[in-house]
Structures are given as structure tokens and as C-alpha cells.
Amino acid sequence: MEAWLLTNEVAVRLFFFFGVLGIVALWEFFAPQRQRQRSVLFRWFNNLGLVFLNSAVLRWLFPMAAVAFASVATERGWGLLNLLDPHPAFAFLVSVLLLDLAIYLQHVLFHAVPAFWRLHRVHHADVDYDVTTGARFHTIEIILSMGIKFAVIAVLGPQAVAVLVFEILLNATAMFNHGNIYLPKEIDRVLRLVVVTPDMHRVHHSVLPDECNCNFGFNLPWWDRLMGTYREAPINGQRGMIIGLSRFRNPNNIWLHRMLMIPFRPESGGYAINRRWDDVFPEGDGKKRSEGSEEGDETEGAGNAETSE
After folding, report:
1. CB of 46 within 8 A of CB of 259?
2. Residue 206 in 3-state DSSP?
């Protein structure tokens, strides 16, 4: 099985990517959790355009992907697991868990460091929340993420098949938990014991900073609970919460070229994980604005940040 997976890596990745994308898209169509703010086709064209651009850039910059790099690390004896040489099943399980922990910590880092947050804003600036949001990341962030992943592989020394399985799981769960899909509360409560659900991760995309700075997990929910960053639900409810960033609510920001320029625009708001209300509430009246209507927040956010453009 391991040899077959590695031999057919591209086909397996494409099967799961388009399979999960199709399933979640149909689920969103028949049982959405929230009403959409923008045109589906227009958003999908630009969000998926960014995905294909990122894939092309990665293939050009990194001819050796993470799975191939893991094979090289194993051959040369790099990494803790290659030094300890535990049972293959144990090494596989530990590799998947620690790779997921690394993604969690990386996500926190991209919220905590203002320069990284500028890049990560592209992901959070989407005013809708659906399956394509899960893959909407700036190209430079994708490049940095690959570099971080290579470093983790070099230090940890995971099996190549463990890296492949982890990447497929991460991609699939990211599309699932970014889906605009309805799940009964009873089912969601059970599922989020073992996987990040859409209702759990959607809180992270709230316009409110205390909600945006929680639920960082993409795949496993345990890290948020262990690190104290777990939040069960948004204060205004799943359908009443506002998605996105108040400084980027102009409909033109959906365009691909506008997304690529978001990190270089001046209205960064000084965002970091320890900031208060200055980015989301430029006027500083966090409590009053958080209690306002969704329409009022969107209008004021657009007025403060976008009218000059």
C-alpha cells in the first residue's frame, strides 16, 4: 500500500482534492449554514485561480516536494525519528500528530507576527466562508509554509508516506471545516472531539479579534483545547456573526490581483495576536460596535478602509 501511494501520489492527491471539493460544494448548495454575501461563481473563479497560481509557483520553486524531501531525509538519516528508529506504525502516528501540531503553531505565528499577518490577511479578508476559503492563501505565505514544512521534516524525520497522508488529510479537512455547511449541533458536538468542524473553525474567521484569535486548528481540535485557544461558539451565533476583516470589505477585493496586493496595502491596523480593537474597530469603540448590526459594521468598515480606493 505504501509503495502504491507514493507511486501514484499525484493521482491520489487530485482524487481527494476534487472529491472533497465536490462533496462539500454540493453540501453547501443543499444545506448551507449561512446566507452568502457575494456571487459564488465570481468568488470561486478568483479563489481557485489563486490556488492554481500557488501550485504553479511551488512546483517552480520547489522541484522536490515535501514527500520527496521526506524520502531524502530518511535515506540520509536526518531527523529524530530516523535516529531513534521506532516501530514504523508508531513513527507514522507520531509523524502525523507532530506535523499537525506544527501547522497549529505556524498558524498562531502568522497571527502573532505583524509581517506574517499582512500575508495571512488574504485568507481572513474573504467576507464569505466556504470550501474555497480553505485554500485561499497568499503566494508568499504558501512559499513560507513550504519552507517551514521542510524544516520540520528535517528535524522530525517522518516517513514519506506519513507526510503524504498528513497533507491529504490536512487538505481534505481544511476544505471540510471551511465549508458553508449545516451540521446538527448534536453531530457537531461529537465530531469536534476528533476533527475541526465548520462551526468550530468559522469562529476563527469572525471580525471580532478575540474570536479571530482562537480555534487555530485546521485538522485536529486537540491543540486548541490544550493551548487554551479553544472557543465553542461566536458571541453573535453562527448566522449572526460577521465574517472577514472590516478594513477589507470592498467587493473589488474578490479579484485575484487585489488579493495579491493586500499584504502591501497600508491599512494593516497593526494586527498581532496581542492587539486589542484597533484593526477591527478603527474608532476604538469595540463594545459598541460589536453589539451593532451586521449591516452597520460592514458599512462603517468599508467607509473607514476602502473609500479612498
Report:
1. yes
2. strand
**Dist CA 94 CA 217 (whole Å):** 17
- Residue 238, classed as helix, strand or coil, is coil
Residue 297 grid cell? 459594521
Query: How many domains is the chain partitioned into structurally?
Result: 1
Measured in whole angstroms, how far is the alpha carbon of residue 248 from the centre of its chain? 18
- In whole angstroms, what is the distance from residue 85 CA to residue 99 CA? 18
Among 290, 287, 271, 288, smallest CA distance to 279 is for: 271
Containing structural domain, residue 155: 2-305
Taken in order 8, 132, 167, 69, is the CA torsion positive or negative? positive
What pTM does this model have? 0.86
Q: One digit per residue, pLDDT tens: the chain, 309 residues?
A: 788 988 999 999 999 999 999 999 999 999 999 998 888 889 999 999 999 999 999 999 998 899 999 999 999 999 999 999 999 999 999 999 999 999 999 999 999 999 999 999 999 999 999 999 999 999 999 999 999 999 999 999 999 999 999 999 999 999 999 999 999 999 999 999 999 999 999 999 999 999 999 999 999 999 999 999 999 999 999 999 999 998 898 888 999 999 999 999 876 555 556 554 444 444 443 443 443 333 333 333 333 333 333
